[in-house]
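User: Hey, quick favor. My workstation is busy. Could you predict this chain's structure for me?
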Amino acid sequence: MAPSNQVSTLGATPELSSTATAEPSGTTMPAPSTKPSAGKPTSSKKPTQPVEAQVSAECATKKCIALTFDDGPGEQTAKLLDILNSRGAHATFFLLGQNAKRLPDNVKLIANTPGMEIANHSWSHPNLRTRSSQKVKWQLAKTNEVLEQLSGQKVTLHRPPYGSHNKRIDKLVGAQGMSVIMWDVDTLDWKHRNTATNVKKAVSGAKAGNIILMHSIHAPSVAAVPKIVDQLQAKGFTLVTVTELLGPTKPGQTYFNGGGPK
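Assistant: No problem, here it is.
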């Protein structure tokens, strides 16, 4: 179900703020020696410890899995929503602010489709660990401004690009009222762009509480969703949003998965 903590009334596409859409000038932190991967989250020397999720009431009695889609909205958004909605599957969309501004109607479409949740994935997909705190704050706040204006939903979840975060980033995320949502199943769909492989990686070894990472901007990824949903549902899983899976989350804390019956 769509989150109920709304901040405005849905209707005609609102005018977006006229504030600048470029990162503020400031010191950029040194880049890491290796490029982070969506499949292998980057961590600091003392990685942030994940929090044991308080499973939602529904998922305490059902085998729940959260499907999540990064990097949208894109040209595949409407098709993906039709696939999910026709099967009664819920999902969480971690959206980029720059794409939301480019395709505002697609953000509204997600918000108005039952069972879909909107979340923050930064403005332009930088490695936040290489950005100054000022720039990280801007990436988070500007994205939330656009998403909340377009959707009428309060944004409470953030996924760092490349999975790259540390205690500094988590604190900045928490200061804006969001928790950090990672994943425990990575389809690597951005890398292999193969529908059959996407299905296998998402379904093989599926367990209650999984958070599955996919991307909504690649055609092979969207093409895999019907089989992924059908096969998971045939195994008795209920597909839910991250919030439906975890229940209330704590700002600034990191979550990789939820619990539930085995």
